[in-house]
Design brief:
alpha+beta, 2 strands, 43% helix, elongated
Length: 68
């Protein structure tokens, strides 16, 4: 059993794409607190990573919805 502290972030967002349709994305990540890093710093690092991925995927979906 590991004694390393982990942090988990799950983030979701639903985007209305018009015509009574929506796009839902849910992403999550678990990572370990690195040596010399506080729990809060690790949480902020993982949250920032997941947030950027959610934004990236929402932008991709927005582009695709405009192409249809």
């Amino acid at each position: 059993m590991s004694d390393r502290t982990s942090v988990t972030v799950n983030l979701g967002y639903t985007m209305n794409i018009g015509n009574y349709q929506s796009f839902r994305i849910d992403l999550g990540c678990t990572d370990f607190v690195k040596d010399g890093e506080s729990y809060d710093d690790a949480m902020n690092r993982v949250y920032s990573f997941i947030e950027s991925k959610v934004v990236e995927k929402l932008q991709e979906a927005e582009i695709l919805s405009k192409e249809e």
